[in-house]
Amino acid sequence: MIFVATGTQEPFDRLIQTIDRLAPSLNTDRVVAQVCGSRYTARHIECLDFLPPNKFDALFMEAELVVAHAGMGTILSALAKEKPLLIMPRLARFGEHRNDHQMATAKAFEKLRYVHVAYDEAQLEEMLVDMLTNKAGQLHRIAPHATGELVAELRSLANEAAATKQEFIHTKLYTNLCAALREALIVR
Using CA atoms, how far apart are residues 109 and 70, in angstroms rounded to an integer? Predict the structure, then answer.
């Protein structure tokens, strides 16, 4: 089963239309999509507007492949649950989001080689078929919870910021926080 997740903020009809068009030719028994207010009426996939967390998690775990927008929640869930993930970022020029932060997210995770990224519908089709044919696995995984070291480092940074009465985004603290978060994303 392929699970398609578009997030809960707004529709992503370009993704849903592409998956719906491809569904009859895909080597899978079922495609289920969480669509959040989509105006598109799918013909070949099962669309659910809202999913309670337990249903979302059950479909996520059942999926052999997850296809999604470039939302951080979905990306981190796929990495923690060891699911192959193909993302396509929403684009502001199509009115899919207020800005192109999902493009930046997609590029950053692609550079780390953590996820598969399709930047348009043609790439989505090509990569989806390839991932199903070759039984692509996840590219990376993360621990489901923060390590004790990360929690201690974050607590230390917050205490240092409070003690010095400086804003948290102070350069040194921000740099240390980013380094701690990068370290947390590396599974040993």
Answer: 9
pLDDT tens digits, one per residue of 7-27: 888 899 999 999 999 999 998
DSSP 43-106: SSSEEES---HHHHHHHHHH-SEEEE-S-HHHHHHHHHTT--EEE----GGGTSSSSSHHHHHH
Q: Is residue 96 part of a domain?
A: yes
Give yes or no: residues 8 and 98 share one domain. yes
For residue 158, what is the enclosing H or E element? helix 148-163
Measured CA angle at 107 (ends 88, 134), to 5 deg: 55
Domain span holding position 44 = 2-133
Residue 139 within a domain = no
Distance CA 60, CA 64 (A): 9
User: Do 170 and 116 sit in the same domain of this protein?
Assistant: no
Helix, strand, or coil (residue 166): coil
What mean pLDDT comes out for the span 67-81? 91
Q: Are residues 16 and 77 in the same domain?
A: yes
- The more confidently predicted of residues 101 and 183 is 101
CB neighbours of residue 34 within 10 Å: 23
